[in-house]
Specification:
CATH superfamily: YVTN repeat-like/Quinoprotein amine dehydrogenase
Number of domains: 1
Radius of gyration: 18 Å
Order of helices and strands: EEEEEEEEEEEEEEEEEEEEEEEEEEEEEE
Helix content: under 10%
Shape: globular
């Protein structure tokens, strides 16, 4: 049943604009060449962090708004993710294409410290373990892979192939899934041993995420392709309503009903959304900003934020 102002999906009550309508955030930080954004864990005002390829970083907290962060090195940051270790709890970890790493406690946000990788890879993506096990995985566009149990000590791993890995995610609460810009896919149960998988198409995959409600891994590509998998092994192409250079995909789950919304953003300013990962609808976006990354705000919170390389930040709803 559709109620005015509310989108009712599988007994889920979300604001009707979630995923559908995006707006530019006023008062956001506009100086960075933003490449990645990551929501917090719900502490300290439900904040999120963004990093940029120009070495900049920013923080958003409810009540505090946007502010620039001081980071240990001015590196070409490519990804920021919240990871978990039993020794430190939730930690923000950022990686750079020059091989650098930095981290800070999620309850602090401001005290960042450099970490030493096991190898100087061209790092592009980070995955946490959603079973709250001490396994953090980082992949690189030069084919590198490494893991850590505490974000301090890192071990180099051998990828299934020396592919330009662009994104990695922990899916199905059991499997790490990584995608590459040359069309390759690989999976691992422990982040150590990796196996090549066959994608639905040899597309330039840019981002992968997991939808808990749909129980699907979802990958998007810069040529507009979308594919899903129930296990990381068997992949199926899905039809996008628009042909767009997708760069990021994210899913958020409603904490009460267990259903979710999935969004994907593109570098031409466009976006799409889905309630199941299979059927996709074009979203309304504010312009042609070069979006680079999208993230849910926090678990159980029906908000997404996206950042762009021109310094823009947009939000839905």
């Amino acid at each position: 049943m559709m109620i005015p102002g509310i989108l009712a999906i599988q007994s889920l009550v979300f604001p009707a604009t979630v995923g559908r309508i995006w707006n530019i955030e006023s008062g956001s930080i506009s100086t960075g060449v933003w490449t990645s954004v990551c929501g917090g864990d719900g502490s300290e005002g439900v904040g999120f962090v963004g990093v940029g390829s120009d070495g900049e970083a920013f923080l958003y907290t409810e009540g505090g708004g946007y502010e620039s962060l001081t980071v240990p090195t001015s590196s070409a940051w490519s990804c920021v993710e919240m990871v978990y270790t039993s020794s430190s709890g939730n930690v923000f970890l950022a990686c750079a294409t020059g091989g650098e790493l930095m981290a800070c406690a999620s309850s602090d946000y401001t005290s960042w410290s450099s970490k030493t990788p096991s190898t100087s890879g061209s790092w592009t993506s980070i995955a946490r373990n959603y079973n709250y096990e001490d396994i953090v995985v980082v992949v690189g566009s030069d084919g590198s892979v490494m893991t850590s149990e505490d974000t301090d000590s890192w071990t180099t791993r051998t990828a299934a192939s020396a592919s330009p890995w662009t994104s990695v995610s922990h899916c199905f609460y059991s499997t790490y899934v990584a995608v590459a810009s040359n069309g390759d896919v690989m999976t691992s149960s422990d982040g150590i041993t990796w196996t090549s998988r066959t994608a639905a198409s040899a597309s330039p995959w840019t981002s992968v995420c997991y939808s808990n409600t749909s129980n699907l891994a979802i990958a998007v590509a810069s040529n507009g392709d979308i594919m899903t998998s129930p296990d990381g092994i068997n992949w199926t192409s899905r039809t996008s309503p628009i042909s767009a250079p997708f760069v990021g995909v994210s899913s958020t789950e409603d904490a009460f009903s267990g259903t979710n919304i999935i969004v994907a953003v593109a570098s031409d300013g466009s976006a799409v959304y889905s309630v199941d990962g299979i059927n996709w609808v074009e979203a309304s976006t504010p312009g042609t900003q070069p979006w680079t990354s999208v993230s849910k705000l926090s678990y159980g919170v029906s908000e997404f934020y996206a950042v762009a390389s021109d310094g823009s930040v947009m939000k839905t709803p």
